[in-house]
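Researcher: We plan to redesign the surface later, but first we want a full-length starting point. C-alpha cells attached.
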C-alpha cells in the first residue's frame, strides 16, 4: 500500500511538473509574479538566514575549540574546521532544511487555500494553465534566490566565528584567521551552490504539488503543508548523499 501510494504520488507529481514547465502565456504577468516571489521567498528569508547562520558559526567555533584542546593540534585547525563545516554542509543542506519549513509550508498553504476556495478551478474554467500560472514563478524565484541565501549564510556564519575570536579569549583572532585562509578550495562554494539549486527546486516543487492537489477544507491544507515539509526534507537528505558522492 505504501509503495503503491508512493508510485501514484510520483506519477501525479511528474504530470503536474509537465504542466508547470511550459512557456508562460504572458511574460509580463510572469515577471510581475516572479518579482513578488523573490521578495516573499528571498528577501523575507534573509533575517532568519542571518540569525541562524551567525549563531551556528559561533557554536561550531566554540565546539571545535572544546574538542581540540590538545597541545599537539595547532589552533588554526579550529578556523579550518569551522569553514569546512559551513561551506560543505550547513550553508547548503541544513539551511535548505530550515527553508523547507519556512518557504515550503508557505507555498503549500498558499496554493492549498486557493484550491479549496475554488480559485484554481476558476482559472481552469477561464482556459488558463493554472499550474504554470501559479507554480512556475514560485519555482523559478526560489531556485534563483537560494544560492544568494547560501552565500550570505557562509559569510555570516564565518562572522559568527570571528565574534567568538573577538569577544572571548577562547582563541586568538590571528589563529582563527589563519585557519579560515588555510588550504581554501573554491570548488566547495560551487559544490554548495549546485546542491542549493537542486534543493530549492525540490522544496518549491514538492510544496506546490501538495498544495495544488489538496482536497477538503482548512484541516487538509494544514496537513498538506506538513506533508510538504516532511517529504521535501526527506528528499533533501536523500539527494544530499547522492550529490556528495557525485560531486566530491
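Model: Full-length starting sequence:
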Amino acid at each position: 500500500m505504501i509503495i503503491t501510494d508512493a508510485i501514484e504520488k510520483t506519477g501525479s507529481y511528474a504530470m503536474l511538473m509537465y504542466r508547470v514547465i511550459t512557456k508562460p502565456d504572458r511574460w509580463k504577468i510572469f515577471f510581475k509574479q516572479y518579482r513578488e516571489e523573490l521578495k516573499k521567498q528571498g528577501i523575507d528569508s534573509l533575517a532568519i538566514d542571518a540569525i541562524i547562520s551567525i549563531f551556528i558559526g559561533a557554536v561550531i567555533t566554540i565546539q571545535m575549540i572544546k574538542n581540540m584542546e590538545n597541545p599537539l593540534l595547532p589552533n588554526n585547525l579550529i578556523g579550518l574546521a569551522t569553514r569546512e563545516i559551513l561551506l560543505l554542509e550547513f550553508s547548503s543542506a541544513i539551511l535548505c532544511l530550515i527553508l523547507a519549513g519556512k518557504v515550503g509550508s508557505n507555498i503549500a498553504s498558499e496554493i492549498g487555500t486557493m484550491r479549496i476556495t475554488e480559485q484554481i478551478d476558476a482559472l481552469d474554467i477561464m482556459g488558463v494553465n493554472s499550474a504554470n500560472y501559479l507554480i512556475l514563478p514560485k519555482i523559478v524565484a526560489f531556485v534563483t534566490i537560494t544560492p544568494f541565501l547560501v552565500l550570505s549564510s557562509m559569510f555570516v556564519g564565518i562572522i559568527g566565528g570571528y565574534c567568538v575570536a573577538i569577544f572571548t579569549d577562547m582563541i586568538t583572532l590571528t589563529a582563527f584567521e589563519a585557519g579560515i585562509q588555510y588550504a581554501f578550495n573554491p570548488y566547495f562554494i560551487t559544490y554548495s551552490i549546485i546542491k542549493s539549486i537542486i534543493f530549492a527546486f525540490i522544496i518549491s516543487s514538492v510544496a506546490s504539488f501538495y498544495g495544488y492537489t489538496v482536497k477538503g477544507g482548512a484541516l487538509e491544507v494544514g496537513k498538506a503543508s506538513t506533508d510538504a515539509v516532511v517529504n521535501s526534507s526527506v528528499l533533501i537528505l536523500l539527494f544530499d548523499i547522492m550529490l556528495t558522492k557525485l560531486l566530491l
